[in-house]
Amino acid sequence: MVEQGVSTAQKLPLGFTFSFPCKQEGLTCAKLINWTKGFNASDVEGSDVVTLLRDACRRREDIDIDVVAVLNDTVGTLMACAFKENSCQVGVIVGTGTNACYMEKLSRIGKLQGELPEDNLPDEMIINTEWGAFGDDGAMDSVITEFDRQVDANSINPGKQLFEKMISGMYMGELVRVVLASLAREGLLFNGDAEAISRHGCFPTKFVSEIENDLLEGEDATFQKTFQILEDIGIERVSNADCANVAYTCSLVSTRAAHLTAAAIATLLNRMKLPYVTVGVDGSVYRFHPTFPRLLDEKIDQLIEGDLEYQLMLSEDGSGRGAALVAAVATRMKRERMGNA
């Protein structure tokens, strides 16, 4: 902050982006429900993460931090895009994990009925869907494959975040690896040599993007990058057919991920029934996968109802800028209340 010319001599308002399922009891109170995305720090679940952050800040005597808001990264994405485009009503993350939030009418939020005073407040609220946990109750059993179940069983939180494990960057590469290992054991890949590809974690999601870039060459594809990746993993005597089949497997897994995400977004748009909605999107999979944005857009267009229209908008650092916007508004409102007291 010193390098950026920010004075540490005064209390600094902070917007805290916390990208995990929480029970939010206020603008500055959020109790962690459970860790996701491979995190598993002890003695945090059930605690107010804002209190923990404030305690940690107080232990540093060289800076005075005032946490004025805690928000999910999807909310940050929505806010960052809404600052530029006021039709933004949905925020989506497709990165290490996946989640979404959207604007909902208060009259449709059953949990709030009877709790809302008639005080001329806005008639909408941002709902954090935590859709990564969709399917944990068995609702997706008909589409979950044996490969999905294997990835889930080997994860840090079996039985949890099943939708997320079918989509996000945390698991996409591992899901491809599990499929390739199965094909190799059946003698359909790598001359039946499954040893190298059977190592857990040897096929990160970045390989999926790099290999699918080879597919963009079309019929003239030489699979140069695919060859290199497979050799680096330790697979010997890789053939052109192996490379083509690996690339095809990558495309199937990522296409399914895009289509599942599209189905979830289309469900929100169909529920909102607004004539035009901007959907703010952020996350490494959306940003860096070569075909994911196009596949997502095409499938949403097929799934939305009637004459509804939408656009996808890439969020520029939603977690940072969105949190800063919320912090700025919260600070202004706090000062106005103090001035009117």
Question: Could you characterize the architecture of this molecule?
Answer:
It is built from 11 helices and 9 strands. With 341 residues, it is of the alpha/beta class. It folds into 2 domains: 1-71, 2-Layer Sandwich (Nucleotidyltransferase, domain 5), CATH 3.30.420.40; 72-315, 3-Layer(aba) Sandwich (Hexokinase, domain 1), CATH 3.40.367.20. The strands form 3 sheets. The protein has a 5-stranded mixed sheet, with helices on both faces. It is globular and about 75 Å long. It comes from Teladorsagia circumcincta.
Alpha carbon gyration radius: 23 Å
- Share of β-strand residues: 15-25%
Averaging pLDDT over every residue, what do you get? 91
Number of DSSP strands? Answer: 9
Total number of helical segments?
11
- Under CATH at level 1, the class of the largest domain stands as Alpha Beta
GO biological process, one term: glucose metabolic process
Keywords: ATP-binding, Glycolysis, Kinase, Nucleotide-binding, Transferase
Protein name: Phosphotransferase
Organism: Teladorsagia circumcincta (Brown stomach worm)
